[in-house]
Amino acid sequence: MSLSEEKTSPAPKYPVTDKVLEALAISRRGCDELLPEADWLAKLARSEATGVPLRIKLGLDPTAPDIHVGHTVVLNKMRQLQDIGHQVIFLIGDFTSMIGDPSGRNTTRPPLTPEQIKANAETYYKQASLVLDPAKTEIRYNSEWSDPLGARGMIQLAARYTVARMMERNDFHDRFKAGTPISVHEFLYPLMQGYDSVALKSDLELGGTDQKFNLLMGRTLQAEYGQEPQCILTMPLLEGLDGVEKMSKSKGNYIAITEPANGMFAKILSISDELMWKYFTLLSFKPEAEIAKLKAEVEAGRNPKDAKVMLAKEITTRFHSAAAADAAEADFNNRARGGVPDDLPEVSLSGAPLGVGALLKQANLAPSSSEANRLIDGGGVRIDGSVVSDKGLKLDAGTYVVQVGKRKFARVTLA
C-alpha cells in the first residue's frame, strides 16, 4: 500500500455541528489537499464535543535567518486554526537541518553546521510571532527527542520503513533513474520528520505541497507506534515576485517579513494582476466573499491597482503598522510621480571627477560598470532628476541625487 492509500477512519462518533462545519471550512480555505478529510472532520467533532483542543504541528528548518511571506502561507493557516481554539506547535527543525531536506531537490542539499542552525533559529520564532499568537503557541525543537534516540534508536526507527516505499518518493525516484547520487543520510530526513509527529502526538501537520511525502510519513509512523494517525493539510507554494518560481531567498524573488515598510509595499505592488488574486487567497485575512466581490469589480472595469493597494496595505500593516502602511503608500506615489523619497541612503565616494558608470557601481546602484552602461542606454539613470544619456559623463566633486529605475535612490557625495 502506498503512502497515498492510507486507510481512513469511520464516520464521526460525535455530532457534526454547524461549528464543526465552520471549522472544516476554515481548514479548507486556500488549501491544496486535506487528507483524509473524513478523519479531520471526526477529529474536529470530537474536539468540539469534548472541549479538548487538537494538536496542530508546523515544522520549519532554519535554513536561512529570515522568514519571507511565502512561509506565512502555512503560518496564516496555523493562526486561523489557533483562533478557533486549537493548540498550535511551532517546531524548529534544529536536528533535521543537519540532515538537509531533499524535498524538491535534484541534488543533495548541503547540511548546515550547528552554528548556522543556532544563528538562524534565534530569529525564527520571533518572526513567526508576527503571525501567530505567541501566548497560545507551543514552541519546540526536534533535537529534544532526536538527539536522545542515539544510534540504536535510529536503527530501530529505520527498521519500520522499507527502501522500496522510500523510492516511491518522486525526488528519489527521478534522481535514481537519472543516475544522480542519493546519499543514505537523505533517507533519514522523512523518517525523522515523521518521528516528530510521534513525539508531539500531533493531530494535524501542515506543510507545502512539496512536503506531502514527509507529512504522510508521520501518519505511517504514528500508526506503527500505536497512535491515532495525524491528518495532513498541504498549502500551495507561493510564487515569488517573478510570478514563475517558488518564493525563495536563493532566487531573490522574495519579500522578507522584516522588509522595511516602503520596500514591502512597493514589492507587493510589483506583482502581476493575475498573481495578485492568489496572494489575496493565501496571504489576506479578508473573508473569501469580500475577495470574490473585489475580483468581480475588477473584472467589471475597476482598476486592478486599487485591489493591489488594499493587499499591500493589509500585509504592510500586519508586519509594521497602519501608519507605516499609509506612509509607504505616500512614498510609492511620490516615487511614481518622479519624486525623491525622504529616506535616501547616504553614500560618500572619492575620486572626482568620476565616470558615471563607476559611480553607479561604487554606490551599489549597479552590480558592474557594464550593467551601469546598459541601464544608461535604456534611459534608466537620472542624476538630480535629469536622464543621463552620455555613458562618458564624468561628475565633479559635489552632492547628487542618483536614481536607477523606479525604486533605487541614493544621495551621493563625491569628493
TrEMBL record:
Residues bound to ATP: 249
Catalytic reaction list: tRNA(Tyr) + L-tyrosine + ATP = L-tyrosyl-tRNA(Tyr) + AMP + diphosphate + H(+)
Positions of the RNA-binding S4 domain: 354-415
Subcellular location: Cytoplasm
Coiled coil stretches, renumbered: none
Entry function: Catalyzes the attachment of tyrosine to tRNA(Tyr) in a two-step reaction: tyrosine is first activated by ATP to form Tyr-AMP and then transferred to the acceptor end of tRNA(Tyr).
Protein name as annotated: Tyrosine--tRNA ligase
